[in-house]
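Hi there, hope your week has been kind to you so far. Do you reckon you could talk me through the fold, stretch by stretch? Thanks so much in advance, here it is.
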Amino acid sequence: MFPVLTNAVSVVKDLIFHPICLGCGGLCDEHADFRHVCARCSPLMVQVQEPHCDGCEHPFWGVVVGERICPHCEGMRPLYGRAKTTVLFKGPARELVLALKYRGGTFALEDMKVLIQKNQALGDFVRAAILVPVPLHPRKLRSRGYTQSVLLAELLERVPQAQELGEEEVA
């Protein structure tokens, strides 16, 4: 679709169906960082920062000395080299993922894009990574109409990161 037409459709849609917060069910402010998470709920999306587990990136609170492996990863020997995340899978962030995965909520990709842009370490990792979407069973693909891992891989591939945008555009 043409960008001008896409924007016009989006504006009309928002006038008729104002975006609802996935976190609390309230109305979203049009000037908030996210379209589907209100300003009151957005701080509940915990951004993962250092120090964190080297295996799964679950954050540690406080000072960490020595190996950075959380109790969940201690006995595991995953087949992948490293996992990356931008937020903890709880609260509104969890609702964004569930909307995309189970409720046909491709609209959640807009807010996921904002989360990804705010995480410079994820951008650096993705630039050097080979993204391989997990295939969806054909029956699930027919019922959903899309594979969420493909949509996320395409989003990660297209999203400019903080260093490309300039600091003032991300904040």
Summary: Residues 162-171 have pLDDT under 50 and may be disordered. The first helix runs from residue 3 to 16. The helical segments are 3-16, 91-102, 108-117, 120-127, 138-144, 148-158, 162-165, 167-170. Residues 3-48+85-170 form one domain.
